[in-house]
């Protein structure tokens, strides 16, 4: 009998078990049984070859349509090119070097599973040296004949695989395991199984791998998705309940003080959204338990102003507030912006300062020794009511007198440990406000940030200009790129400024392809594009570059010059993605825009149109029409609705990483749950979790369920969820 704890060496033998461990980190029967298929194919059905991404590891079901043998140019030998198709007209080329003997196997008309890495050469998509499993018994090796018989007419599981362990090897291992597998006792309470119409765990685990029919596969998936959603929601409901009872320090709003003076001096009215969110935060701060709130807001919606008002409320109540920014550029920008907003209120002790005000201090890694000592002294004795900084705030030696509020800007740019280190600098847990300009779909907020209260700022302040976005298809219409350079020059002549954004800093960042491994060209780099613009395309304009490897003082000098209007064009990487605010910038050209994610593109274009003149964002790409990359760019160009784009972005990313697997370097066990498509299921799981935790807070009456939750959401991931 095999249980989930049985080592795979006892089930599959040492050699196969070692391959699964080395390449897929699968060590036990439980690891393998929970290694679910990515999808299911049937011979004769289409695999959408047009949707394949360059550099993606894929397995496709396709038919051999033709082949040719060509001599290689750079070395002796021949290259076999096999064209495969899915019946829809789309094709893919499989290349084999010095393996002409494969002609005997890969005959025209044969169907097979082909697995490998997608590359691109001269505009054609390729699989270079793919592994394959043919599905026609007459054209296969003898030892595969039995598997081919099983494949024919059945749903074919396609597993997340590795080059050394293709999907059909995993399928064979799973079949061997299922022969002796004894499923665990079902941890799901019987009343929930009955209410939610869930099949037993043993049935679900068998049918997910060897489905008897499509309805049985649906039932298996539904049960296993429910397990995933329920485990996460139980964890979050428990954490939120504990946080609600934790002791904190109330920071109530004062009847008279800095916040009242600040509001009275604002040259414009708060938007309705800013007022509503401000009231939510003010009420949280007044409670004797730590606030833990997520503030979402579109680029330019006024999140920083909301956070300044919250910080002033805490200062009025005798505490200090810290704003943590991910880069020196953004920290410096925040410091200057908040200084300007506060005016005399932020210069207490200076000749022109308000004696009833506070002081604002900047702490970054590039501060000189004397400036650093002075800043840290103000932080330690409480003179600095508001402290703005980078991760330098986390270092030993940065001590607060009474840290009452931590504001984390662009929170996804920080690791869990970094955020927690700043909170630990307070004697009692401080209030925490995390902000993001990356819109988050409701189901993600419910799943990843389910222990945070969420506020949304969707309304833009008056005076913000619209941004028009256009795709520049460089291969199809090269004249469009020439026109883009002219458009930038026109904007500069009209008195405005421009950004040119590149994916890379320099040529040393990308690994060149190996011999006989054709792939797409390296992405464009700041250091390569800058001289071309100065000498050719934008000759005569004042141009400078900005990237993350520059010394902090150089970065600051460039940003100051650009903000002052002394530069016309800034050639930059994504270092300008967040926080950079130059209202005179009206046009942005993003080169190789298909190399960026949807949310990144939305963030980047938010740097233009911040003043009274309309903004233009041009998305340059060599992605062909109909490809997934091109469709992403078309979507970005079609809308400025960040929440709509966030759903597109979610489709492109690995949803299993919501438990922090990418941060922790561990496997995530969210295999099936789709945060985009399973909103109803997640809501139902949350309702059941709330009811169960309300009745049994520590799951003491449900030990099997507690153990199951611990397996899906281990302590590291539970902490990741708790810390937001």
From TrEMBL:
It comes from the Bacteria. Keywords: ATP-binding, DNA damage, DNA repair, DNA-binding, Helicase, Hydrolase, Nucleotide-binding. It comes from Actinoplanes xinjiangensis. This is Probable DNA 3'-5' helicase RecG. PANTHER family: ATP-DEPENDENT DNA HELICASE HOMOLOG RECG, CHLOROPLASTIC. GO terms for molecular function: ATP binding; DNA binding; DNA helicase activity; hydrolase activity. The keyword Cytoplasm does not apply. GO terms for biological process: DNA repair. InterPro entries: DEAD/DEAH_box_helicase_dom, Helicase_ATP-bd, Helicase_C-like, NA-bd_OB-fold, P-loop_NTPase, RecG/Mfd, RecG_dom3_C, RecG_wedge. Residues 480-651 form the Helicase C-terminal domain. Coiled coil: none annotated. Residues 284-457 form the Helicase ATP-binding domain. Transmembrane segments: none annotated. Gene3D superfamilies: Nucleic acid-binding proteins (2.40.50.140), P-loop containing nucleotide triphosphate hydrolases (3.40.50.300). NCBIfam families: PRK10917.2-1, PRK10917.2-2.
């Amino acid at each position: 009998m095999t249980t989930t704890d049985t080592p795979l060496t006892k089930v599959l033998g040492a050699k196969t078990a070692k391959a699964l461990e080395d390449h897929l980190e699968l060590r036990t029967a439980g690891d393998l049984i929970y290694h679910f298929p990515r999808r299911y194919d049937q011979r004769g059905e289409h695999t959408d070859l047009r949707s394949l991404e360059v550099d993606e590891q894929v397995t496709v079901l396709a038919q051999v349509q033709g082949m040719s043998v060509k001599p290689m140019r750079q070395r002796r030998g021949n290259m076999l090119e096999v064209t495969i198709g899915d019946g829809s007209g789309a094709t893919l080329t499989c290349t084999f070097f010095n393996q002409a003997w494969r002609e005997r196997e890969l005959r025209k008309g044969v169907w097979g599973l082909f697995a490998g890495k997608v590359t691109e050469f001269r505009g054609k998509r390729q699989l270079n040296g793919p592994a394959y499993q043919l599905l026609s018994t007459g054209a296969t090796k003898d030892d595969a004949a039995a598997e081919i018989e099983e494949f024919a007419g059945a749903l074919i599981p396609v597993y997340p695989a590795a080059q050394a362990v293709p999907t059909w090897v995993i399928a064979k291992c799973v079949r061997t395991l299922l022969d002796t597998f004894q499923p665990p006792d079902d941890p799901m309470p019987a009343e929930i199984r009955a209410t939610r119409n869930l099949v037993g765990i043993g049935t679900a685990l068998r049918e997910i791998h060897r489905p008897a029919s499509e309805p049985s596969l649906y039932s298996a998936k539904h049960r296993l998705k429910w397990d995933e959603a329920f485990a996460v929601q139980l964890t979050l409901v428990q954490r939120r309940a504990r946080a609600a009872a934790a002791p904190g320090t109330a920071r109530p709003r004062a009847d008279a003080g800095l916040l009242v003076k600040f509001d009275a001096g604002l040259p414009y009215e708060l938007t309705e959204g800013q007022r509503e969110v401000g009231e939510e935060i003010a009420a949280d701060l007044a409670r004797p338990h730590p606030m833990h709130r997520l503030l979402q807001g579109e680029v330019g919606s006024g999140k920083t102003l909301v956070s300044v008002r919250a910080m002033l409320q805490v200062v009025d109540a005798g505490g200090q507030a810290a704003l943590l920014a991910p880069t020196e550029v953004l920290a410096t920008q925040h410091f200057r912006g908040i200084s300007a907003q506060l005016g005399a209120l932020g210069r207490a002790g200076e000749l022109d300062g308000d004696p009833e005000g506070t002081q604002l201090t900047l702490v970054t890694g590039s501060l000189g020794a004397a400036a650093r000592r002075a800043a840290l002294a103000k932080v330690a004795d409480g003179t600095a009511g508001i402290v703005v900084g980078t991760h330098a705030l986390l270092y030993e030696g940065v001590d607060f007198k009474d840290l009452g509020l931590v504001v984390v800007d662009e929170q996804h740019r920080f690791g869990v440990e970094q955020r927690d280190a700043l909170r630990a600098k307070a004697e009692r847990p401080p209030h925490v406000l995390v902000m993001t300009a990356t819109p988050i779909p409701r189901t993600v907020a419910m799943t990843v940030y389910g222990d945070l209260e969420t506020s949304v700022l969707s309304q833009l302040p008056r005076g913000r200009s619209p941004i028009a976005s256009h795709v520049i298809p460089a291969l199809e219409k090269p004249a469009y790129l020439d026109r883009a350079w002219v458009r930038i020059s026109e904007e500069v002549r009209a008195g405005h400024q421009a950004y040119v954004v590149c994916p890379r800093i320099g040529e040393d960042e990308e690994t060149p392809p190996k011999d006989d491994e054709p792939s797409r060209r390296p992405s464009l780099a700041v250091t390569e594009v800058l001289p071309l613009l100065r000498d050719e395309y934008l000759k005569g304009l004042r141009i400078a570059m900005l990237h993350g490897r520059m010394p902090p003082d150089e970065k600051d000098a460039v940003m100051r010059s650009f903000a002052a209007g002394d530069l016309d064009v800034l050639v930059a990487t994504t270092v300008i993605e967040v926080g950079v605010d130059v209202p005179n910038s009206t046009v942005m050209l993003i080169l190789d825009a298909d190399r960026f994610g949807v949310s990144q593109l939305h963030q980047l274009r938010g740097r233009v149109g911040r003043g009274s003149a309309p903004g233009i964002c041009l998305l340059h790409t060599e992605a062909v029409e109909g490809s997934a990359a091109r469709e992403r760019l078309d979507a970005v160009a079609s809308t400025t609705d960040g929440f709509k784009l966030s759903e597109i972005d979610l489709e492109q990313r690995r949803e299993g990483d919501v438990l922090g697997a990418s941060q922790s370097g561990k496997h995530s066990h969210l295999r099936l749950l789709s945060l985009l498509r399973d909103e109803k299921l997640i809501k139902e799981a949350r309702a059941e979790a709330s009811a169960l935790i309300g009745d049994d807070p520590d799951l003491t009456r449900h030990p099997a369920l507690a153990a199951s939750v611990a397996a899906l959401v281990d302590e590291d991931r539970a902490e990741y969820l708790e810390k937001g």
